[in-house]
Amino acid sequence: MNAPVSIRQKVKLFGVEYNLAEHCNLSCYHCDHASPLMARKFASLADYERDIRAFSEAVHVEEFRLVGGEPLLHPQLLDFMRIARDAGIGDKIKIYTNGMLLHTMPDEFWALTDVLWVSTYPGVRRRMSDEAIAAKCDEHGTQLDLRPTITEFNRSFINSPVEDEGLVRRIFSQCKMANEYSCFAIYEGMFFRCSVAPFAQERLRMAGIEFPGPEVDGIRIHGNPRLGEEIDARVRSKEPLKACTHCLGSSGPMVPHRQVNRQGRTEWLEEDNRADIEFARRNVRRQALERHVPPVAMRAARKGRRILDYLTS
């Protein structure tokens, strides 16, 4: 699903996202966009239109995703959606939201939304009920993806560098964000293989760590006659991004979901992640094994290990 193919001289991707707000109305620990740590910042409508019209000359996507932070915070949200529809960048417009502001959305929002992804978190109450959201989607022919309650987040982007180049490559090869979920992104005139990469420099700066700007991992969209070729090559590449040196992808440990306050954000930026890196080292071995061993054999091996651990304890 993630592999690009050429149609009418355009590269076709399953999805690409555009971040409308870097901040959020929630403060989820280890949000992979680091929204609780980021300053309040909205996307520019003029830059957005320029970016997606240039991008759509070389690439077509099945899903054009408007994300955040929390995209419903943007006061010009409907303008962004109208431009996406007019530009024809994708077959579907998909909104990712925590749903806390859905009760404020006018009918045009629902009519412009092809797919609505609503994330649910423990202890977070929406003013609009699940039933009301579903009814509104039915009314406007919007596909609803109401997610089960998310109780854990993957610890992905970290303060400590992954200094083992071989491990960086193994983590990248197993990363679902880069290789399975089509989490490609457009940000400030550039295309990124991974939606975490555009924010790596700012995220690490807040932790007192120097890191190159986003252009180190981005492909320039404007004035680039080889845009389609470069994107095609990048999404097929086996080479990790520079941002991958501070990322555990989908191989890091799971951490319980919680909302963080100012003290929690400070502690997040001060974390020593060396133990998480060692967890990822073990986990990528297991993930690679699971890709090549039949599930029945894998279950038998796990059972055998449990019996051996019991007998030798």
Strand and helix map with partners:
Elements (H helix, E strand, L loop, with lengths): L4 E3 L2 E12 L23 H12 L2 E10 L8 H11 L2 E8 L9 H6 L2 E6 L9 H11 L2 E7 L2 E3 L10 H10 L1 H4 L4 E4 L2 E3 L7 H6 L13 E2 L6 H10 L17 E3 L5 H8 L4 H19 L2 H18 L1
Parallel strand pairs: 2-3, 2-8, 3-4, 4-5, 5-6
Antiparallel strand pairs: 1-2, 7-11, 8-9, 9-10
Helix pairs in contact: 1-2, 5-10
CATH topology: TIM Barrel
Query: Under the CATH scheme, which architecture would be assigned?
Result: Alpha-Beta Barrel
What's the CATH C level?
Alpha Beta
Order of helices and strands: EEHEHEHEHEEHHEEHEHEHHH
The total number of structural domains is 1
Number of helices: 11
Secondary structure: number of strands:
11
Mean pLDDT: 93
Question: What is the overall silhouette?
Answer: globular
Overall structural class, as computed from helix and strand content, comes to alpha/beta
Determine the strand fraction and express it as a percent band.
15-25%
For the sheet with most strands, the description reads: 9 strands, mixed
Radius of gyration: 20 Å
Helical percentage: 25-40%
